[in-house]
Design brief:
Layout lengths: L23 H28 L5 H13 L1 H62 L3
Length: 135
Amino acid sequence: MSPNEIPAEITVETKVHPAGTFQAGVLRWGYFLLLNAIAGSVAVALFVAVLYADGLDPYMQGTYEWLLAHPGVTSMLAFSPLACSLLVGWGYAQRARKRRLAAAQRAELVKEARAKRQQASEQQGSEQQASEHPA
């Protein structure tokens, strides 16, 4: 049994709606466009604020000089995207391991349930035969 199959004990009820019943797609696209417009506006505002923020020059100069004096920090900042991607990859690997383990356990449970069901049906069959043919 593959992990995507539903065991026989579980029943699933579905209802198919006619096309055009729900206009959720239009609503989703509307929110998508609205949120992208807001994000673009914030990005442009930040860019313009930094571009024309001459009052930040002393702070920026101090930060620049401090980073030049501490190359370990700049190396760590440069390495951080790689470290983050490695951390995310490790998390996905852990999730995949857990999923495989759960699938194996589910397959084992299904196998045991089938064996019990088969054993019960064989027992019922032998009881029927015994009741039909008394000695």
